[in-house]
Amino acid sequence: MTTLLVTGGAGFIGSNFVLYWMSRHPKDRLINYDLLTYAGNPESAASVAHLPNYRFVKGDVADSRALRKLLAEEPVDAVVHFAAESHVDRSISEPEAFVRTNVLGTQTLLETARQHGVRRFVHVSTDEVYGSLGETGLFTEHTPLAPNSPYAASKAGSDLLARAYFETYGFPVIITRCSNNYGPYQYPEKLIPMVITRALGNREVPVYGDGLNVRDWLHVEDHCAAIERVLEQGVPGQVYNVGGNNERTNIEIVKSILAELGKPESLIRYVADRLGHDRRYAMDASKLRRELGWQPRYSAQEGLKRTVAWYAGRKDWWGPLLETTGRQNPKPQAPEGGGV
């Protein structure tokens, strides 16, 4: 039996990973460590909360005392590190919080895990650390880091710390960098759930700039399967890109959702572009396919259809969050992305 520590397991990708892992590894013990900030929702993992081999611990990854206490009480075999501030717009207005959680928090977790003999550490990162692509080409694991937002810069910093812990201490860190995630349990400020929930209420849907920014969309379940492969078979010290091979412009995504819901395109409202808005991301995930045998299951069409159906049937989950988002951001936003 393996004991797995998942940080940020009440967030979007983290909670999906918790559910994925517990369904496929029912004999493993899983500790979900999450601070429950605005984007953390324990209800996302409610279906496994009753299991005797599941434990939720409220805690901050930057709190070394709490982490030392936890790992002393319950030895951990492996860590999957999702915990991060991930919303680009928030990083522009509140960069300090991103440096604290994403940089200091990652270093604190790495050091604590190293001191307690953790045998496997997967650091989950993002394609945004690579910066912006032109109209052609793909990000590979050898693409230089060139982050353009405080969020991306903080994630790049955490990636470099993870690399340094492998190079300096021989600590068994593996880094994954994913493209934009989408799927169930994503906080309503992100592009796809924002469009779905606003369209369901017949409210206008804001789109940044000309809407032609391109992203590679990855269904969260495919991402979870990739992390499983990396955790079990990945080589320490390596980086693995995870992409869905589903490039779409933002406006294509918005129009597809409106069509799926039978809503008019007249709901679309173009708004001033985000500061430092990267034009295109696209991932080369051939290393992950070639070396670990991973393949995404979901096409953009099928994945988006399933996601729209999930949100349409789960207002009980997103309704209260949408009210909170509305209070925090009374003016319509045009976010994108699928951060951790």
TrEMBL record:
InterPro entries linked to this entry: dTDP_Gluc_deHydtase, NAD(P)-bd_dom, NAD(P)-bd_dom_sf
Gene3D superfamilies assigned: NAD(P)-binding Rossmann-like Domain, UDP-galactose 4-epimerase, domain 1
Cofactor: NAD(+)
The NAD(P)-binding domain, residue ranges: 5-307
One Pfam family named in its UniProt record: GDP_Man_Dehyd
Annotated catalysed reactions: dTDP-alpha-D-glucose = dTDP-4-dehydro-6-deoxy-alpha-D-glucose + H2O
Major enzyme class: lyase
EC number assigned by the record: 4.2.1.46
Single GO MF annotation: dTDP-glucose 4,6-dehydratase activity
Key words of the record: Lyase, NAD
Residue ranges, annotated region (Disordered): 321-340
Family to which the UniProt record says this protein belongs: Belongs to the NAD(P)-dependent epimerase/dehydratase family. dTDP-glucose dehydratase subfamily.
NCBIfam families in the record: dTDP_gluc_dehyt
Protein name in UniProt: dTDP-glucose 4,6-dehydratase
Source organism of the structure: Paenibacillus gyeongsangnamensis
Gene that specifies this protein: rfbB
